[in-house]
Amino acid sequence: MSILEAKGLTISYGDNPIIDNLNLTIPKGKITVLIGSNGCGKSTLLRTIARLMKPRTGSVLLDGDEIAKLPTKEISRRMSILPQGPVAPEGLTIRQLVRQGRYPHQSWLKQWSREDERMVQLALQSTQLSELADRPVDALSGGQRQRAWIAMTLAQGTELLLLDEPTTYLDMSHQIDILDLLFELNEKEHRTIVMVLHDLNLACRYAHHVVAVHNKSIYAQGRPEDIVTREMVQTVFQMDCEIAVDPLFGTPLCIPYGRGRKIHDEQRYGHLA
């Protein structure tokens, strides 16, 4: 059984539909990545299935329950969302931020507990932030700050994590660092992860399931090896390319055409002579 589904989803800004009559099934226990050109609606789709936006028509089901009818706290106990570019209040420490993830589990009758503290400590350990826990979030590097926000979502203790462009504004090293962390969470804890990524090659490397959004709907979905083709890239991204095999991971590798500096064969392969 899938953990998250969208049925007949239409999402609009005013009278302009961004997503039209879309059906989507997110496989449980896998990493799903939404890809597509800028403005295609992939972030809008993610926000809608997280109930941050209301669709014009259609429904989103979480384990068979329509999320529009569920209490907010119940959704937060079953699904966590990290929006793009979150901002923490000035001076807030990592530990204080991560503790916010336990808010859905609090009530007048159930205050802070040992279980809450255990989940916070576990989230800090999983993101390798235990030694920095008392440092202000606004004093962190970009990669550390993103880890702190991911730690907050982990503290919620949900099986389902939704992340909108978690590697945006990060350099290459920090992008890999964050994606490796999410991959480990999926491998070790079997978390279902859904995220939006701009980098097609990173999407192919880390995703079990890729959803290509185009023309207000889904152009293709499935394993990267099955759907990432030259024709798909031409249609979805309006870009000519060659698709090779990543020499390290065996996943599809998109090599775009362009007018970059070309290296002559003797320069390219001279070190092998």
TrEMBL record:
Query: One short Pfam family name for this protein?
Result: ABC_tran
Q: Which SMART domains match?
A: AAA
Q: Which residues form a coiled coil?
A: none
- Is Nucleotide-binding given among the entry's keywords? yes
Which CDD domains has this protein been placed in? ABC_Iron-Siderophores_B12_Hemin
Write down the InterPro entries for this protein, in alphabetical order.
Answer: AAA+_ATPase, ABC_transporter-like_ATP-bd, ABC_transporter-like_CS, P-loop_NTPase, Siderophore_ABC-ATPase
Residues forming the ABC transporter domain are 4-240
**UniProt membrane topology term:** Peripheral membrane protein
Q: Main site of residence?
A: membrane
Q: Name one GO molecular function term.
A: ATP binding
Q: Where does it reside?
A: Cell membrane
The protein's UniProt keywords, in alphabetical order, are: ATP-binding, Cell membrane, Ion transport, Iron, Iron transport, Membrane, Nucleotide-binding, Transport
UniProt protein name: ABC transporter ATP-binding protein
Species source reads Paenibacillus puldeungensis
